[in-house]
Amino acid sequence: MAAAAASGPPKIIDSHLHVWASPQQAAEKYPYFPGQEPTLPGHVEFLLECMGQAGVDGALIVQPINHKFDHSYVTRLLSPVMLENLECHFYHTPFGSVKSYSHSSMSFQDGYRAVRFNPYLWPSGQLMTNEVGKAMFAKAGELGAPVGFMCMKGLDLHLSEIEELCTEFPSTVVLLDHLGFCKPPKNQEEEQVFSKLLNLSRFPQVYVKLSALFRVSRCQYPYEDLSDIVTKVVSSYGANRIMWGSDFPYVVPECGYKEAKEAVWQLLQQAQLSSSETEWIMGRTVNQIIFNNPSSSS
């Protein structure tokens, strides 16, 4: 996909964001899924404007719920002509659900690089460790495609499933969205859940997204209550298993895109990380696991 660039400043890669069609584009060619019409702009031109202002070089796009299983809008952005016109290299994932593929037909084309498991799209009463879930998880590992987990209702609800999949299929890389949705603990029960997030680091294939800070912080921007969480996650996983993400465009009305990146920088400074560790979190980690390219400047 993206050609290797000459050596230069470390690339800053946003590991978690969404794009969807504008209302005009939706009416003409890329319809929204019924009942999932967006309430805020998320078209690619707006994203590029925000990335330019923030000094962000690339992005891992997560398929939005607004188009559900129709990936045509994101696929359009992957065409060589479109990439050239946009003057930007995108790192994309289809991040579909259990209903997106059968394990036998699962493949990655058009620049797609990963899968997302959304436990709330599984049939009622079934787990991600059912026959289909295991087959897809195993197939993703065979294809070298990371599997993201969105545990929006709480990591503890899905921890045993993730552990079972990691144990049975150690070659499949796992991405935990939004710090596993662990907020700064306020009681013993929340402390235990956060400890379980840290304990998942025993599986070397597990990576954590330091993303959507506004979703996990109990405070307003710049989300300073996450300082201790960030320090402990980095200590447990190592910077080379952590990646920052904005959750664009949802982050824009919360604090702004540029400000979201700056909030992460501030938290990493508070954690007293080295410049090398910061480079891993801000771009090298996602570059390595998506493109097997650890270089921070390519």
TrEMBL record:
SUPFAM superfamilies: Metallo-dependent hydrolases. Residues 111-284 form the Amidohydrolase-related domain. It holds the Pfam family Amidohydro_2. InterPro entries: ACMSD, Amidohydro-rel, Metal_Hydrolase. Keywords: Decarboxylase, Lyase. Gene3D superfamilies: Metal-dependent hydrolases. GO terms for molecular function: carboxy-lyase activity; hydrolase activity. Belongs to the metallo-dependent hydrolases superfamily. This is Amidohydrolase-related domain-containing protein. It comes from Salvia splendens.
